UniProtKB/TrEMBL annotation:
Residues 20-90 form the HTH gntR-type domain. SMART domains: HTH_GNTR. It comes from the Bacteria. Residues 77-110 are annotated as: Disordered. GO terms for molecular function: DNA binding; DNA-binding transcription factor activity; pyridoxal phosphate binding. Keywords: DNA-binding, Pyridoxal phosphate, Transcription, Transcription regulation. In the C-terminal section; belongs to the class-I pyridoxal-phosphate-dependent aminotransferase family. It comes from Saccharopolyspora shandongensis. This is Transcriptional regulator, GntR family.
Length: 463
């Protein structure tokens, strides 16, 4: 893969502002792009002269930045050939900070498992396992027990669904990958919320799609603009149910008023985490042809690796067949455990939501006390707040944060073209001690960035 100077310039966004020498800033940001996956591994970098011309800087600045990245192991160093991106051995592992402490991971928005309930669900799953052992164990579309439980949950949420409309996957990410692989072609236009979930952008980039961003702001979605953008597109990938990263929820009226001009894929991974509003009725209840993606990851636990697709029966069959090109089914015990958990969801959810409300309250309190000039955007649920910084230094902050014991996801990961340098996603899924130490670390890192500090050590990769 090759990246052009113009494409790299778009990814770098407004990189030139800020303290420190330009070659350091350029090297820091290119390294962050590599670690974030926004510059894929083995990408051939633009030539120094060309990049310098496009960025409007001297060739020496670019060659000094490239030389530093080669020395740190982020660019290959073969004579007479273009540099290619790489990660040094150990560079993609979570790294302890300089004092040997493990970093506090604020780069994931994923809650811990409800331990007791999960344990119980696995015990019951093991009790049922003997029934499945005489058969081969490959479930291309998923076990009937789980497809039935997922369909029932859709019906409870206000969308009549039959089990044959459900395909079980190994998580929502797998579901999106399968949909992209089956329904999208290179150069297809795909409309996305902006900001959006970074790993979805990764899927769409890998599929070679042209990504069309539609803004999600503090006031949510502009349904008219969104409808207009979908006209003639190949697909829209939307997060109306406690949007990641903002936590916003598309109101009922807007759901009805949306006029999709292309097939819509709705990622409902956060849909059960309604903290301040009534649980939304799925978008698919308002419009035919909407494909819904769901997951057990946030409602129960990411380690289950269970998700699903709800679509019409023909598409479910088609996706099920296409699946063989990726994998041959989701593990049986995890599916049985997930069906058990879904059977208990009405009993489990209230405690889960109460716990998340408390964690969010703590995070907002810490923010108000330690980072007074940051503002937390409005949210209605989910697992994170989208915090606005007083200066556009999100990437610089994420780059120095590991030196202060914290891993952070920089705002531009959630967008395209280097947008969102003024934002950071802050999850409230950690426990009180970790969140307190995490916000303390961010406050120190932020003060250091404001005082002109650049990253001394490369930041750890963000998963
Ligand atoms: C919006 C969204 N979609 C998909 C995923 C991936 O879910 P899974 O763990 O089920 O693959 C996540 C996880 O963070 C997410 O937030």
């Amino acid at each position: 893969m090759h990246t052009s100077s113009h494409a790299l310039a778009r990814l770098l966004g407004d990189w030139s502002a800020g303290p420190g020498p330009a070659h350091r800033r350029l090297a820091d940001l290119i390294r962050l792009l590599i670690l974030d996956g926004r510059l894929p591994l083995a990408t051939t970098m633009p030539g120094e002269r060309d990049l310098a011309a496009v960025l409007g800087i001297s060739r020496t600045t670019v060659s000094t930045a490239y030389a530093a990245l080669r020395e740190q192991g982020y660019l290959s160093a073969r004579a007479r050939s273009r540099s290619r991106t790489r990660v040094p051995p150990g560079g993609s592992r979570p790294e302890p900070d300089t004092t040997g402490r493990d970093l506090i991971d604020l780069s994931h928005a994923a809650p811990p498992a409800p331990g007791e309930a999960l344990h119980r669900a696995y015990l019951r799953a093991l009790d049922q396992l003997p029934r499945h052992l005489p058969r081969h164990g490959y479930s291309q579309l998923g076990l009937t027990e789980l497809r039935t439980a997922v369909a029932r949950r859709y019906a409870d949420r206000g969308l009549a669904t039959t089990p044959d409309q459900i395909l079980i996957t190994s998580g929502a990410q797998h579901a999106l990958g399968l949909i992209a692989r089956t329904l999208l072609r290179p150069r297809d236009r795909v409309v996305v919320d902006h900001p959006t979930y970074p790993h979805a952008l990764q899927v769409l980039r890998t599929a070679g799609c042209r990504i069309v961003p539609v803004a999600v702001t503090d006031t949510g979605w502009d349904v008219e603009s969104l409808s207009a953008a979908t006209r003639g597109a190949a697909m829209a990938y939307l997060l109306p149910d406690f949007h990641n990263p903002t936590g916003l929820c598309l109101p009922e009226r807007d759901r009805a008023e949306l006029r999709p001009g292309c097939p819509v894929v709705v990622d409902e991974t956060m849909a059960e985490l309604a903290l301040d509003v009534d649980p939304p009725v799925p978008l698919a209840a308002h419009h035919t042809g909407v494909v819904s993606i769901g997951s057990a990851a946030k409602t129960f636990w990411g380690g289950l690796r269970v998700g699903w697709i709800r679509a019409d029966v023909d598409l479910v069959q088609r996706l099920g067949q296409a699946r063989a090109g990726i994998d041959l089914g989701t593990p049986v015990v995890e599916q049985l455990a997930c069906a058990e958990l879904l059977g208990e969801i009405d009993r489990l959810l209230p405690d889960r939501l109460a716990d998340l409300r408390q964690r969010r309250g703590l995070l907002l309190g810490l923010l108000a006390a330690r980072l007074r000039d940051w503002t937390a955007g409005p949210s209605a649920g989910g697992l994170s707040v989208w915090a606005r910084l007083p200066q556009p230094v999100s990437s610089a902050l994420a780059a120095v944060a590991p030196e202060f014991g914290v891993r952070l996801a920089a705002g531009p990961r959630f967008g395209i073209g280097g947008a969102f340098e003024r934002f950071v996603r802050l999850p409230y899924s950690l426990d009180a001690a970790a969140m307190t130490a995490g916000i303390d670390g961010i406050a120190e890192a932020f003060a250091a960035v404001q005082a002109g500090r650049r990253a001394n050590t490369p930041p750890a990769a963000l998963a």
